[in-house]
Specification:
This protein has 534 residues and is of the alpha/beta class. The chain has helices spanning 23-26, 37-50, 85-97, 116-124, 185-199, 238-252, 265-270, 283-287, 292-306, 325-328, 349-365, 393-397, 442-446, 452-465; strands at 17-21, 54-57, 61-62, 74-78, 101-106, 136-137, 160-162, 168-170, 205-208, 255-258, 279-280, 314-316, 369-373, 475-476, 483-487, 492-497, 510-514, 528-533. Helix 2 (37-50) runs parallel beside helix 3, helix 5 runs parallel beside helix 6 (238-252) and helix 11 runs parallel beside helix 14. The radius of gyration is 23 Å and the shape is globular.
Amino acid sequence: MAASSPSRTADWWRDAVIYQVYPRSFADGDGDGTGDLAGVRARLPHLADLGVDAVWFTPWYASPMVDGGYDVADYRAIDPAFGTLDEAEKLIAEAADLGLRVIVDIVPNHVSDQHAWFRAALDAGPGSPERARFHFRPGRGENGELPPNDWPSQFSGNTWTRVPDGEWYLHLFTPEQPDLNWSHPDVRHEHEDVLRFWFERGVAGVRIDSAALLTKDPDLRDFVEGVDPHPYIDQDEIHDVYRSWRAIADEYGGVFVGEVWLPDAERFARYLRPDELHTAFNFNFLACPWEPGRLRSAIDDTLAEHAPVHAPATWVLCNHDVTRTATRYGRTDTAFDFATKAFGTPTDLELGTRRARAAALLTLALPGSVYLYQGEELGLPEADIPRDRIQDPMHFRSGGTDPGRDGCRVPLPWEAEATAYGFGAGTDPWLPQPADWARYAVDRQRADADSMLTLYGTALELRRTVAGFGDGSLSWLPAGEGVLAFARDHGLICVVNLSADAVELPAHSTLLLTSGPLDPAGALPPDTAAWLHA
């Protein structure tokens, strides 16, 4: 069997495995209960040993943390809770020494209401140049008492807030996150400068938050369900922004990944044209239920979307906004939808974990790149956060009906017997860790040949060293009902059994890896995956 490695040259991003770090919950270096850059630097060897290629950091910038750092007050400063700019530069360099590239998060749709620009806009008053950088408007109604339009929020609640002088400002998320006006040259120039700032500090790429929301209908016309074009999602003018950004990235050899939620495959692909973004997140696969037909369709649709622009697909099972995989796959409804999140949804965690293990092998065998959210390699379940400890604004803006996203953001367990499971010494973590999480701790899983961590480590090593993984082709193989089987290049085969019965493996010369043990007859049990070599 020929050995090779996915590309690690200029096109490394086409087949990389990228690990997502949510800094607040990764590791706490100073013992104050909040994760920080010192904690990340100390744990970088874990990521190198795991075998990932790059690390994506959710926002680490100066922020009031109303929305977990996605309310940025200063793009060129590290939040004091996380550390300093000097520490960030050291982290980037230390990661490089370990063979890890760094990707930072940019939030271009909005800033914090504590950002210098917005504070100046409030002070300057109606009609001022400072307010032109945002969307300030007079209200409707006899005395301007009604919002300028009826746009729905990306969270629950209103999208307009009135200031004391009577004008209203737009915020698609929380009132503390005012939307920027992307038709204003200052906004474009500022973000181009921010990109250069981080590329010059050695980052390899940039993840773009809410990438399809930047440009707005200039008349701010009302939203009408089903009527195109949408007044603030996927406006045509947005592509001019990303063309200018791509020129900057090309100067530094940097790459982009966009957070693009779009149901239209053709319009989605426009973001991935050769002079725009390199990659975009694949949310159809992430939200897909654990059903063979739906998964196969999601895979086929994804590959078809990317083929016309020759862009690599990205695959992800979970992130900092989504119910953790082991929990979601143990529920009656295994799909993900923000609208259906609710307190008290029952789950069979044993079943969900078995499926999560199989999904790991499925995902890592698909063509393209993979994003791995911190804690997924440990099989962490969604945590139940006591209501008096919830911090996510999605919960509060829903009137308390939405459990929010804190359950997937709980600080990681590193050491089974240590205080806070080794997340940090001293103060309790900013979110409470469940009492039974010692079994998920990194040190305990390293010593267990059957652990989720061992499975991921073995899979990533094979992905690096066995020909056929990463970028390339995929061909479906004949398989029984409820079974997904496909071939990659160089004789690599992946089989996933989603049926209720054990199934025979296809003819093969080598069994590379399984997500769980085969049955006594050598058949693949339900909710189990296998990698084979023909």
